[in-house]
Amino acid sequence: YNMDTGDTIIGWVYQADGSIDSLATRLAARVPVTFTDGVIFGSPWDGFIIFSENYDEAKLDTVEWLNKTPSTSPSYSIDFSGKTSYRYKNAADYDFVWGEPADDKNGYTMPFSIYNRSSGEKIMFQLGGVSSSNLGLAPIPEFPYFRNRMYFFLREFNVAGYDSSREKSTWRVEISWQPDSLASNIHYNYPDVDTMRVRIKKPFRKGDQFLFDASSITQMKEVTSDHVDDVIVVPNPYIVSADWETDINHKSIHFTHLPDECVIRIFTLTGELVYTILHNDLFSGQAEWNLRSMNRQEVAPGLYIFVVETPNFETYTGKFAIIR
């Protein structure tokens, strides 16, 4: 709806019996255009096009360490999955407050507490174990049960579709990192207080409302060298035969903290162009490479150079290694 005029901009016209009147909707120029991947575009109005994208279920969006840069954040990989008995994934964001130790349901102490940002409630969790025999040493001596590839379940009340007094497992969370013998990891420094914010992509729910205010005009900032200097490659080095490589048919590395629009060129040490990635995404600062050349051949192990270039000719050069 246009809040100033009250006019419906996008939306079906319905007949008296509640069915959609397709002809009337087309004549009113209010037909939303739906693509096979669920993306919806509305008709242009006043110089704007409404873009809508929904999700079948809640899923992990981003993990951010507040008040830290990518180069100073702990190098932990966080996996949120719905591998629980609960049918639906809980559509809420979470804060992991490190430096605020908490016990799980069985008394195992972790170096963090977990809060549901939607409800403000502190969340109980239950350690499930580890998903690999290659544990290594505990990186924080005060917390011997905090190990590589440990996983636990979030236990929450007030879950939609259930009695609010019943506790349900809503998410399975796994924290992992590359073995310290193979990578220069950054670990959380206890007892510092740091917040790791986990944002979840949430499906639309009945009754959701969004208000867009276009009364002020803003201008996007131009990308500077400070922005491209944040680009990193994970994992680096990439070890093909590592224990954590679970799918031999899907090998990839990720370029993260990218500007919205850029070109990534990957070279051998001799300057031969291996692959080019065109990144143009306002919502995701990362791009994936499947370790194949432009000829679709799997690349050889070794050291590679990558160059990130933006439309205003800001560049960043880095390197990564592939180890068999």
Q: Residue-averaged pLDDT, rounded?
A: 80
Helix content: under 10%
Write the H/E string, N to C: HEEEEEEEEEEEHEEEEEEEE
Summarize the main sheet.
8 strands, antiparallel
Figure out the total of helices: 2
Descriptors:
single chain; 324 residues; mainly beta; 8-stranded antiparallel β-sheet; 5-stranded mixed β-sheet; 2 helices; 3% helix
Layout of strands and helices, then pairs:
Elements: H1 22-27, E1 33-34, E2 39-41, E3 51-53, E4 59-65, E5 77-81, E6 94-103, E7 109-116, E8 122-130, E9 150-156, E10 168-176, E11 194-201, H2 225-228, E12 232-234, E13 238-239, E14 253-256, E15 261-268, E16 273-280, E17 287-289, E18 302-309, E19 315-323
Parallel strand pairs: 13-19
Antiparallel strand pairs: 1-2, 2-3, 4-11, 5-10, 6-7, 6-11, 7-8, 8-9, 9-10, 12-14, 14-17, 15-16, 15-18, 18-19
Mind explaining what this structure looks like?
The chain has two helices and 19 strands. The protein is mostly beta strands and 324 residues long. The protein is globular, with a radius of gyration of 24 Å. It starts with 21 loop residues before the first helix and ends with a strand.
